[in-house]
Amino acid sequence: MSVTVDGDKSGSVPGRLRRIVRGPRPERVPALVGTACTLIGLIDVAAGVFPRFRASRMHAVAEVLPGTLGPLSAALSLSVGILLLLLAHGLKRDKRRAWRAAVVLLPLGAVAQFAWRHSVTGAVLSLALLALLVRHRGQFAALPDPRSRWRAVANFVLMGAGSIVLGLVIVSAHPRRVVGSPSLTDRLEHVLYGLFGFEGPVAYTGDTDWTVGYSLGALGMLTALTTAYLAFRPEHPAARLTEDDETRLRALLAQHGARDSLGHFALRRDKGVVFSPSGKAAVCYRVVSGVMLASGDPIGDVEAWPGAIERFMDEAKAHSWTPAVMGCSETGGQVWTRETGLDALELGDEAIVDVADFSLSGRAMRNVRQMVKRIERNGYTTKVRRVRDLSDGELARIRRAAEDWRGTDTERGFSMALGRIGGPGDGDAVIATAHKDDAEGPDGAGAGGAGDGSASPYGDLKAIIHFVPWGPDGMSLELMRRDRAADPGMNELLIVAALQQSPRLGIERISLNFAMFRAALARGEKIGAGPVLRMWRGLLVFLSRWFQIESLYKFNAKFQPRWEPRFVVYRKSSDLPRIGFAAMQAEGFVNVSLPLPRLFARRSRARGPQPCAHLTPTSSDQEMRAA
């Protein structure tokens, strides 16, 4: 998805945008309404489920809130409460469709209260909240988020599971009215029957049978209706890079790609893009969990960055997305904060090696030097070539190996991963490969064998490193993959080979991994570090068990790089947890979506070039491009 407008606004962002970002935020009413819906929804659910709640001191509060009391009113209270809970988040984010649903629900709730409970106060409060929504309807104008039919499947699973759990609570909430002593199996059977509107094996005295029956029926109806709504509503697919967008981005990278080592990663196909009015700059992004996540610096002429940033902020405001930038440079952070009023926080450091200064000699490189020599003595050889110099057969074999050697079911990478090898237009990328004949493996099985002397399906290929272009004289590390049966140290071997062969390819600088919180790790282990810094370093070391923060830093430090700081740009401190969670989703460390069945996933991968994460965490080589 791209936005282009004639004219040039390469100067500073107009005052209108400054007022949007820096002036009084018009979010107080949506936040108030969303909070009110949450509280009312919780009380309504409690009033519909727990009979003791209706007889407790909280009954005085529940009397004046939307909801009803009685066999049918309990189901109505439960339904209204759940729907308000579902709408609360959308109202807080200014969503127009959530506003429309609330406007329809509130008068229905008011009529139900007056008809079933004769509660004038409760009806008046419902109408007062309705009036507040109508009075501030202009603030609820955000467009829908990207969505697909899979949301209906997710809703059915989650709502169905939630209905069963809540149904068990409803069935068990009337112990004094239960006839006999039904088992858990009987209660579960009663819930399942009740969700479909049938009477189950559990019996009650008085009118409790009707209360439980209506409540379970309401849960089943809500699950069916919300699933049907999500299944049949129009799709709003996530933004994807079109062929025209990619052509324009490649033209910008050809002119300005040397400025940022992450520029080539803007060509990921799962990103959207907004262009500056002049078309001389662009910002690429992905929307994850309501966060509009950009990565790296804007692409193109620095003078035109403000125009692209303005378009990015306008798009975020139109959808009520939370704007954020991951891994921008110091220059990029200065422009973002100056033009939008956002804040920046140092996230870590990028390791950059200048080819002319690299050498294996000296005490500092002793460990790397010894490891490389040991591997070479074991019979491994290396090749460093441009992708365009590979034959079709060899490129296909490298793609298959990279896919099969991936250590996780989910592809990882976003800000520092391209997601493909050898795609059209990527001929300038560099691939370093390690090779060893299967006959030379231990016990005659080869590095890729299983100990039975069988040949590897990838021939003598044992490890792969893929670099993407960084301007005309640089390259940036994209992925590292190796056969798990190969000797440890394949990554060090191939990085050294790439550095040694770089002059032949015209490469003068190489960007390696990004090390999160490197400064804290480095300072925290020095003599004289204070208790707070040591405690912070200890926490990072503990988290490294899952995210390889410390191991990635130490891996980078082996090559004596220079460190370039990278920053996260955010709107307010309270957004940081949400931004962090969205970034982990984008990078593939957290997967909250339902995966395709394995059969369809294989067919999907077979349609095009294999997507590749930046690094497979295998055995001792668990360093990642972006932790």
From TrEMBL:
Domain spans labelled Phosphatidylglycerol lysyltransferase C-terminal: 250-570
Sequence intervals crossing the membrane: 29-50, 70-91, 98-116, 122-140, 152-173, 212-232
InterPro entries, per database record: LPG_synthase_C, PG_lysyltransferase, tRNA-synt_2_TM
GO cellular component, one term: plasma membrane
Domain Lysyl-tRNA synthetase N-terminal transmembrane region: 27-229
Keyword Transmembrane: yes
Subcellular location: Cell membrane
Name of this protein: Integral membrane lysyl-tRNA synthetase
Organism: Streptomyces laurentii
